[in-house]
């Protein structure tokens, strides 16, 4: 079968290759892939940015892709019978370490991310532990399935790590897919206003943010602090930093009201300098949010019927696996909102 694989730990070195189909083991589910998504992590693997990929230590060739979904082909038992459309949680934890015992497998001592450390889903078939596949709620459009991994990242941040309360004013720094999904969930959770910032190159994404009910701000043309203070004079109750740009950390602190919270989601490629004095004087909480836990996926599935239609609006392009490099270039250039890959 065909698979998009990283061949060597260097920039580029990615190709569509032939690989053997996986052999399903007891307790696993064989899934025929129907679609996969692309995110900034995939671009970092393609470009081989050590600041991001250094955490994975994969063997090569590595089948890439951690956002993917498909249809069950083989399984044990009745939970996910053949023919079931599923999204796949690509995070495989050891189940035995301190953090797994605390119910936080995203911090697992031996965390294995499919598409990062072990083979992922930009291929035709995958075999994964049965508890890593999630059937969609009844009546949900199957097209949303490949978007559920990034939605789970946003769910962990907005509903678990730094939860929104009804009436909150929320600011989201970064108009990429994770930022837009954070805005969607914040609005669904009862936020009074959600402001989303981006740059001039994000014009299409900012239009989408407006369509979804958020207040978009192009920081190349307007002052985001002034726009925020028009919504709430002393700043946002919560700021989510999703851009991964080091210089935005001070902006996040400046945008947050006294006693507020800053959720850090984006992964910075370089060092940043942050003055701690405003954090102390404003008694801010800075909270990291990494990936998701199994509880996150279950929570997300309860919310999904309310937000699925908005989530689907992120998809702007669909590209075949054989054109993966063009798709990665599109993501790097900020073309569209969400690009979905499909088997050729």
From TrEMBL:
Span of domain Alcohol dehydrogenase-like C-terminal: 177-302
Question: Do the record's keywords include Oxidoreductase?
Answer: yes
Q: Where is the Alcohol dehydrogenase-like N-terminal domain?
A: 26-137
Q: Which Pfam families match?
A: ADH_N, ADH_zinc_N
Single Gene Ontology MF annotation: oxidoreductase activity
Which keywords, in A-to-Z order, does the entry hold?
Oxidoreductase
Output the InterPro entries linked to this UniProt entry. Answer: ADH-like_C, ADH-like_N, GroES-like_sf, NAD(P)-bd_dom_sf, Zn_alcohol_dh
Q: Which domain of life is it from?
A: Bacteria
PANTHER family per the UniProt record, alphabetical: L-THREONINE 3-DEHYDROGENASE
What is the name of this protein? Alcohol dehydrogenase catalytic domain-containing protein
The organism encoding this protein is: Ramlibacter pinisoli
Supply the source organism's classification. Bacteria, Pseudomonadati, Pseudomonadota, Betaproteobacteria, Burkholderiales
